[in-house]
């Protein structure tokens, strides 16, 4: 198709209108992703940034690009309506997929199990989690920070393995292992020597000291734990009662 100047101007105007409408949707989705689905400190290390890039590619690039390519006022009204409907269907379908993928991969719990701190997403519960409100009893944080205690008996370990193999529910998403907040405080205190060694192993002691200086804290006043996100690692900082305070990288 030969792009004459009037046709090009018309296409650019239609694309600009589409882009402005898409931008309004994008801003709303960014707010949801950043503040509700992947709140700090998990946004950068556990999938929030990847979700925003996926939504941007669909909402800000795909839709307006299709509009630019196929919109043409020289067509009949019926053809224009068909083109607009095609654009809406393609963009809505792709956007719905992107939003669904981002939403279902969000962390709904941060779980300490053994010496690991991991995120749990909805699918990992295998249908055992009836409502996210069931997790609120363990923590007031968003998402809640929970301690999962592994059993020490042969029977207990066998049951954990059975659930893992038969129901495909990993240990950190097995609700029967979740313990009250007081257990989180105890677990954090018991692991400080181990976590301190890991801090030195990763050569991140200087970052810890910087955080302490900036927040006017001493090492005796806080507890730390390394969070292994899907796209990076950060250190969570708690007070001596196991209440989450902040994080450092």
Please describe the structure with a list of short key phrases separated by commas or semicolons.
51% helix, alpha+beta, 249 residues
Task: Report on this structure.
With 249 residues, the chain is an alpha+beta fold. The protein has seven helices and seven strands; from the N terminus they run αααβββαβαααβββ. Strand 5 and strand 6 form a beta hairpin. Helix 1 (5-37) packs antiparallel against helix 2 and helix 2 (48-70) runs antiparallel to helix 3 (77-104). It is elongated. The termini are far apart. The mean pLDDT is 93.
- Count of individual helical segments: 7
Major sheet: size, sense and barrel closure?
4 strands, mixed
Strand order of the largest sheet: 2-1-3-4
Helix content: 40-55%
Q: Choose one word for the global shape.
A: elongated
Radius of gyration: 24 Å
Give the end-to-end Cα distance, rounded to a whole number of Å.
52 Å
Number of strands: 7
Structural class: alpha+beta
Could you report the average pLDDT, rounded to the nearest whole number?
93
Query: H/E order of the elements?
Result: HHHEEEHEHHHEEE
Low-confidence stretches: none
* Oligomeric composition of the shown chains: single chain
Short structural description:
This protein is an alpha+beta fold and 249 residues long.
How do the helices and strands line up, and which of them pair or pack?
Layout: H1 5-37, H2 48-70, H3 77-104, E1 109-113, E2 116-120, E3 145-148, H4 154-166, E4 178-179, H5 181-190, H6 192-201, H7 205-214, E5 222-229, E6 232-239, E7 244-248
Parallel strand pairs: 1-3
Antiparallel strand pairs: 1-2, 3-4, 5-6, 6-7
Helix pairs in contact: 1-2, 2-3
């Amino acid at each position: 198709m030969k792009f004459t100047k009037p046709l090009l101007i018309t296409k650019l105007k239609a694309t600009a209108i589409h882009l402005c409408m898409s931008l309004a949707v994008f801003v709303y989705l960014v707010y949801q992703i950043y503040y509700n689905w992947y709140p700090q400190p998990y946004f950068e290390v556990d999938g929030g940034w990847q979700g925003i890039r996926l939504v941007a590619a669909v909402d800000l690039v795909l839709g307006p690009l299709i509009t630019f390519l196929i919109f043409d006022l020289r067509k009949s009204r019926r053809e224009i309506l068909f083109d607009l409907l095609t654009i809406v269907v393609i963009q809505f379908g792709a956007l719905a997929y992107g939003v669904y993928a981002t939403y279902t991969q969000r962390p709904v719990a941060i779980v300490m199990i053994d010496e690991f701190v991991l995120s749990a997403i909805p699918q990992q519960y295998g249908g055992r989690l009836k409502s996210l409100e069931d997790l609120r009893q363990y923590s007031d944080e968003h998402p809640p920070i929970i301690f999962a205690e592994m059993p020490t008996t042969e029977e207990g370990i066998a049951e954990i393995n059975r659930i893992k193999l038969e129901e495909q529910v990993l240990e950190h998403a097995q609700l029967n292992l979740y313990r009250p907040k007081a257990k989180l405080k105890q677990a954090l205190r018991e692991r400080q020597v181990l976590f301190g060694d890991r801090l030195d192993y990763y050569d991140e002691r200087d970052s810890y000291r910087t955080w302490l200086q900036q927040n006017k804290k001493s090492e005796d006043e806080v507890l730390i734990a390394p969070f292994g996100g899907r796209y990076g690692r950060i250190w969570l900082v708690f007070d001596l009662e196991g209440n989450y305070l902040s994080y450092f990288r």
